[in-house]
Amino acid sequence: MSDGVDFLGYIVRRDDLLVRRRVVNNLKLKRKAFEADLARNGLRVRRWRFDRERLDLLFATLNSYLGHTQMASTTSLWRALWQRHAWLAAYFTFDPGERQLTRRYLPPTEVRRASQQYRHYRRQFPEAVVLPQVGRFFEFYERRDATLAQALDLEAMRRNARGARFGFPVAALRVYLQRLLVEGRSVMVIAEEDEYFTAVKTRAPVCR
């Protein structure tokens, strides 16, 4: 009893319940495989890829382990996982108290206008410069974007139905992205989805 009883994936002790080391090691291996696929280090830039299918699988995998470990003493395990692997926070928010995982990358379903979708992603990724694609342009919609526009040498747009204040062509993305990266800014690229089945054109993250 002092060593604990190995039962159904747990180590059962008199006053404690632990998760088997094999379960923890399996989680680490899967986490490592997802990280190699989604988050990559370049020479000077770290790039996060937003592959919806892979991210949904990662979301399901993490939730599966959260469910398995919820009865055991694993609060410190999950806190350590989130602290040591900060790349996960690019895709999810995690409440360790509630053991609740939330996806940050999902396109909003309750908004219709491009400006509303832009503000949604600004709230989801406040630490990044959000570049939302609208047709053949990347556009900005808020007054506070004037500082960013000044840094990128963007002129104010004429009054338009979308309410866009500044923008630049999609073809010039590489130029402006380079300027932002040189300044040490984190950049989130939001692209239009190729197909949609309603009157609403949806947009979703493709890379950061």
Summarize the model shown:
This protein is an alpha+beta fold and 208 residues long. The protein has helices spanning 21-38, 52-69, 75-84, 114-124, 145-151, 173-182; strands at residues 5-7, 10-12, 17-19, 39-41, 46-48, 92-95, 100-103, 129-134, 137-140, 166-169, 187-192, 203-207.
Note down, in words, how this protein is organized.
The chain is an alpha+beta fold. The protein has two domains: 5-103; 114-207, DNA repair protein MutS, domain I (MutS, DNA mismatch repair protein, domain I, 3-Layer(aba) Sandwich). The chain has helices at residues 21-38, 52-69, 75-84, 114-124, 145-151, 173-182, and strands at 5-7, 10-12, 17-19, 39-41, 46-48, 92-95, 100-103, 129-134, 137-140, 166-169, 187-192, 203-207. It has a five-stranded mixed beta sheet with strand order 10-9-8-11-12, sandwiched between helices. The protein has a three-stranded antiparallel beta sheet with strand order 1-2-3. Strand 8 (129-134) and strand 9 form a beta hairpin. Helix 1 (21-38) packs antiparallel against helix 2 (52-69). The model has no long low-confidence stretch (mean pLDDT 87).
Q: Which class do the helix and strand fractions yield?
A: alpha+beta
Task: Report the average pLDDT across residues.
Answer: 87
Report the β-strand fraction as a percent range. Answer: 15-25%
> Count of DSSP helices?
6
Name the overall outline.
elongated
Tell me about the biggest sheet?
Answer: 5 strands, mixed
**Domain module count:** 2
Using DSSP, what is the number of strands? Answer: 12
Uncertain regions spanning at least 5 consecutive residues: none
Distance between the termini: 50 Å
What integer value in Å does the Rg equal? 21 Å
- What is the percent of helical residues? 25-40%
Main-sheet strand order equals 10-9-8-11-12
The arrangement of helices and strands along the chain is EEEHEEHHEEHEEHEHEE
